[in-house]
């Protein structure tokens, strides 16, 4: 196997991973928006302690007994930021590989 073929295969895998992680990130961002803006659109009407976040989109209500309604799950938030980080790293590695290849 030639070195050129190996670099091309590595570059293709990096671009594929970057696209996959970016797709997961955008899907999770869309799901968090639907959760906050569509499913829990009535939270401001019946909640005294409304908390909102913009990245990822979240609208949650903390009741007096300490229960939280409408918040994103910890696993969801971890997957959101993990996909964002992994996509960014794969994209950076793909660009770095492309620059090295063109020298």
In short, what is this structure?
With 103 residues, this protein is of the alpha+beta class. The protein is 68% helix and 13% strand. It starts with a helix and ends with a helix.
Write structural notes for this entry.
There is one protein chain. This protein has 103 residues and is of the alpha+beta class. The chain has one domain (3-102). 68% of the residues lie in helices and 13% in strands. The protein is built from 3 helices and 3 strands. The model has no long low-confidence stretch (mean pLDDT 87).
Q: How would you summarize the topology of this molecule?
A:
Blueprint: H1 3-39, H2 43-46, E1 50-54, E2 57-62, E3 68-69, H3 74-102
Antiparallel strand pairs: 1-2, 2-3
Helix pairs in contact: 1-3
Characteristics:
single chain, 103 residues, alpha+beta, 3-stranded antiparallel β-sheet, 3 helices, 13% strand, rod-shaped
Compressed to H and E, one letter per element, the order equals HHEEEH
The description of the largest β-sheet is: 3 strands, antiparallel
> How many structural domains?
1
- Can you count the beta strands? 3
Structural class: alpha+beta
Radius of gyration: 20 Å
* Lateral strand order in the biggest sheet: 1-2-3
- Portion of residues in helices? 55-70%
Distance between the termini: 21 Å
Mean pLDDT: 87
Uncertain ranges: none
Shape: rod-shaped
């Amino acid at each position: 196997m030639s070195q050129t073929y190996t670099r091309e295969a590595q570059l293709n895998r990096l671009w594929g991973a970057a696209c996959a992680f970016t797709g997961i990130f955008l899907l999770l961002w869309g799901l968090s928006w639907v959760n906050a803006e569509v499913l829990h659109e009535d939270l401001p009407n019946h909640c005294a302690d409304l908390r909102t976040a913009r990245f990822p989109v979240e609208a949650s209500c903390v009741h007096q007994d300490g229960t939280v309604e409408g918040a994103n799950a910890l696993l969801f938030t971890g997957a959101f930021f993990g996909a964002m980080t992994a996509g960014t790293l794969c994209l950076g590695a793909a660009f770095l590989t492309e620059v090295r290849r063109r020298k």
